[in-house]
Amino acid sequence: MRDLKHLIFFEDLLQEANNSLVKQAKSEGWRALGYTCYFTPEVLLDLEGCFGVRLRAPRCTSPDIATYYMSSRTCHYGRSLLERALEGGYNFLDAQLATETCTVTCRFQEHLQMMDVIQNPGFFCEFMDVPFKKTENSYLHYKKQLQAHVLDKLSEHFGIDTSDEALMRAIERHNEVCRLIREIGDHRKEENPNITGYEFHVIQLVSLVCPKHLILPYLRETAEELRTRESDPKPWFRCKVVLSGSECDDPGLTQLIEGCGAMVVADRYCYGSLPGREEIEVAEGQSPLDAIARHYIDTSMCPRYMEQHVMRHRKQYLADLAREYHADGIILESNKFCEYWSYERTISTIVLGRDFGLPVCSIEKEYINSASGQLRTRFQAFVESIEIKKIQEGK
Question: Which of 10, 48, 136, 256 is spaced 20 to 30 Å from 393 by Cα?
């Protein structure tokens, strides 16, 4: 296939948090708001005059200083974020909007708050409490948290317009991003897709870490380009897989999997688009904030929800994705020492094979995949097992 026009530019944007589009928006007077979790609604951070940056620490392999403060037995992702902060990589941030969800990223954000790490006058950090159940009380509590710890603070500190009209404009822009990403991602459902999983991973990530008003023109062009892009006559992959699990902001992992012959056709992980790129619907007479609060709780597939029927629904969701995207198997990953996703990965490995008949490859990984040789061996063996299964079934 011919190269995507903006792929190299997108790859460059992912080399550091303070990328060229972030710098451009900052130079225009926009406020940069960091966050690490789906439960900090990016649509609220993309109100006029500010923009959200979902934090990453690309190329951070040795978070030695952060380990001194956080322990070596905590998730590499949280330590990598603190390491990058200590290096000055997040000094462009005007605020960090945090949630009491993932324990390690919560600790990272507490260090930002207590240690005066971010060298930016006026920087502040806010924490939101997120419910563990999906009930009416949960929606109301979450809505109050978003009002008190996001909207009120943005208005108080930066004079951001947080009216219902401003929220509706932010929702409209957010929904356009979602439509474009979902359109681009839907090409992966084709028998011989005209986009690779790696390319989609890069595109999805830039939509999370760049100001929406600046990245949107590039997303529109890319979606238009893919409408006429032709696939290679012969498929380059040997099978198709769903990649699911914990925080995954390294396209190199997707590239490694695809280098072993398995195309990643669906991205069900933190920082992925499934879920994450569903449009927000505001019913007639409903306030925008109420719609946002309900949307993020309803669509979340986070394993911190531990009720049996919700856990079962997550497994069904994965099985449905495999069918919708014509995947031959599922790769389940979790970051080392990730408590929530370690439990989820263990349970899913059993249930998906036993109850849905899906081939499963279960791995534990570091934030940056330094043990790529070991992972490559695992992925190659998984691809071969899927091919053997197809032969046995006469496919």
Answer: 256
Q: What is the CATH number of domain 12-161?
A: 3.40.50.11890
- Residues with Cβ within 8 Å of 132's Cβ and at least 6 positions away in sequence, in order, are 304, 305, 306
Residues 289/304, Cβ–Cβ less than 8 Å:
no
pTM score of the predicted model: 0.96
Q: What is the C-alpha to C-alpha distance for residues 170 and 182, in angstroms, rounded to an integer? A: 18
Q: Which H or E run includes 242?
A: strand 239-245
- 246, 269 in Cβ contact below 8 A? yes
Report the pLDDT value the prediction gives residue 96, as an integer from 0 to 100: 96
Q: How far is CA 355 from the centre of its chain?
A: 27
Q: Is the separation of the CB atoms in 195 and 172 below 8 Å?
A: no
Q: Are 105 and 78 in contact (CB under 8 A)?
A: yes
Q: Where are the domains of the chain?
A: 12-161
Please name the residues in contact with 233: beta carbons below 8 A apart, sequence gap of 6 or more. Answer: none
pLDDT along the chain (395 residues), means of 10: 96 97 98 96 98 94 89 90 95 95 89 91 94 95 98 98 98 98 98 98 98 98 98 96 96 95 97 96 97 97 93 97 98 92 94 96 85 88 94 81
- Give the pLDDT score at 371: 60
Closest CA to 386 of 259, 265, 237: 237
Quick one: CA dihedral 241, 251, 176, 96, positive or negative?
Answer: positive
pLDDT of 62 reads 85
Nearest Cα to Cα of residue 348 among 304, 380, 316, 378: 316
Amino acid at 246: S
What pLDDT sits at residue 248?
Answer: 94
d(CA 74, CA 104): 7
- Report CA torsion sign: 352, 100, 58, 225: positive
Listed in order, strand segments (DSSP E) in 55-109 are: 95-99
Q: How far is CA 120 from the centre of its chain?
A: 26
The residues, ordered by sequence, that sit 6+ positions from 311 with a Cβ below 8 Å of its Cβ are: 303, 305, 347
- Identity of residue 178: C
- For strands 329-335 and 262-269, give the pairing: unpaired
- Calculate ∠ Cα 102-12-256, nearest 5°: 65
Per the CB < 8 A criterion, the answer to whether 209 and 56 are in contact is yes
- Tell me which residue of 203, 184, 193, 202 sits closest to 1, measured CA to CA: 193
